[in-house]
């Protein structure tokens, strides 16, 4: 039996296998509305056999976009556009989730392939970003320190986006609390220097995440799973570590933790094959919650070993899935298991 290709149940959702597509921003939406590119990108990988596809960081509010070209779920046009993508993905037998995000002080930047990098000036369509305080991400424009009313809006923005995600046909929502975006900025002592109920003690720093998860869970259908992506270390002395993050998650109504690292402040990261897997294991052990491992998981055997070792319950594949949209079909071939082929391709499945 091949664990990687075994179904995995989360609430009422049965995900056909444990090879999942990592959320990857495409920076190709217009006013937050996704289009043909997103259908091709996610569609190809649904055909390729991924059991759950996590769509890219999708902003819950316009000022929460990493770039002006990010996908969004703050209005109904965006719902209609996503519906076309989720209908296609689900018709292939895959489950589809959306990563709900607010970039906080890391919003309003140029997209990766722009010749200019850093913050987009107002004259070119940028905006004043929001953060726990006015402390800037190095090299970016300083954010405005969020007022209590602005902080109070955030859980409601996540909840409103989750309602729209349901209408858009998503099976799963993931809250993006990693990579130095808003929820992570509040969670870490390195970036949260507030002196009100949302800063200071670990409990206060976790409050925005706790309230956002609760607000989403309240509106997200009972049978549908809720995931959280965390950075299990800031790779910086004085920053968050896996046990801190796992401690926060332990008490939350979260179905699975997607365990990444870093992104909060510039840091040296010891990147290598499966470099974040030990963090997924630690979060799983301490929180008691299922985890997904991500980060240079590239081969089928490596993925199968991660699952067999009990480090995680699923693996997420990012860049390797850009090289090979059919990564799960190849994994099934290599491991001797089964992944359903699209009927159009079935003749190719002859052994
Ligand atoms: C990413 N990553 C990412 N992460 C996230 O949480 N939300 C996102 O929208 C994005 N966007 C994104 C775009 C692109 C083009 C890449 C390559 C990556 C990070 C991604 O989900 C994953 O965690 C890392 O790429 C590490 O996994 P791999 O690529 O080594 O399998």
UniProtKB/TrEMBL annotation:
InterPro entries: Aldolase_TIM (IPR013785), OxRdtase_FMN_N (IPR001155), YqjM-like (IPR044152). Residues 4-335 form the NADH:flavin oxidoreductase/NADH oxidase N-terminal domain. Its cofactor is FMN. Gene3D superfamilies: Aldolase class I. Keywords: Flavoprotein, FMN, NADP, Oxidoreductase. One of its GO terms (molecular function) is FMN binding. This is NADH:flavin oxidoreductase/NADH oxidase. It comes from Xylanimonas protaetiae. The lineage of its organism: Bacteria, Bacillati, Actinomycetota, Actinomycetes, Micrococcales.
């Amino acid at each position: 039996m091949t664990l990687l290709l075994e179904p995995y149940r989360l609430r009422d959702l049965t995900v056909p296998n444990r090879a999942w597509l990592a959320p990857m921003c495409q920076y190709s939406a217009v006013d937050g509305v996704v289009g043909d590119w997103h259908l091709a990108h996610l569609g190809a990988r649904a055909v390729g056999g991924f059991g759950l596809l996590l769509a890219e960081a999708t902003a819950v509010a316009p000022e929460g976009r990493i770039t002006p070209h990010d996908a969004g779920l703050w209005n109904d046009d965006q719902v209609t556009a996503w519906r076309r993508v989720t209908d296609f993905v689900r018709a292939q037998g895959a489950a589809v989730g959306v990563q709900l995000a607010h970039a906080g002080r890391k919003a309003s930047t140029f997209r990766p392939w722009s010749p200019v990098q850093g913050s987009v000036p107002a004259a070119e369509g940028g905006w004043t970003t929001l953060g726990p305080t006015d402390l800037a991400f190095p090299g970016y424009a300083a954010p405005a320190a969020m007022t209590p009313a602005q902080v109070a809006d955030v859980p409601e923005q996540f909840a409103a986006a989750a309602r729209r995600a349901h209408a858009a046909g998503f099976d799963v929502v993931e809250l993006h609390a990693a990579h130095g975006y808003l929820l992570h900025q509040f969670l870490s002592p390195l970036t949260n220097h507030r002196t009100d109920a949302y800063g200071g003690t670990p409990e206060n720093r976790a409050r925005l995440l706790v309230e956002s998860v609760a607000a989403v869970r309240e509106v997200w259908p009972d049978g549908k799973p809720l995931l959280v992506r965390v950075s299990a270390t800031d790779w910086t002395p004085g920053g968050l570590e896996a046990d801190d993050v796992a401690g926060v998650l332990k008490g939350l109504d979260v179905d699975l933790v997607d365990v990444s690292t870093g992104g909060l402040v510039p840091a040296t990261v010891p990147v290598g094959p499966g470099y974040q897997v030990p963090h997924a294991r630690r979060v799983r052990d301490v929180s008691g919650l299922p985890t997904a491992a991500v980060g240079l998981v590239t081969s089928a055997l490596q993925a199968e070993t991660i699952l067999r070792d009990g480090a995680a319950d699923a693996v997420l594949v990012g860049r390797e899935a850009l090289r090979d949209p059919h990564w799960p079909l190849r994994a099934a071939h290599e491991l001797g298991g089964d992944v359903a082929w699209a009927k159009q391709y079935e003749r190719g499945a002859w052994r």
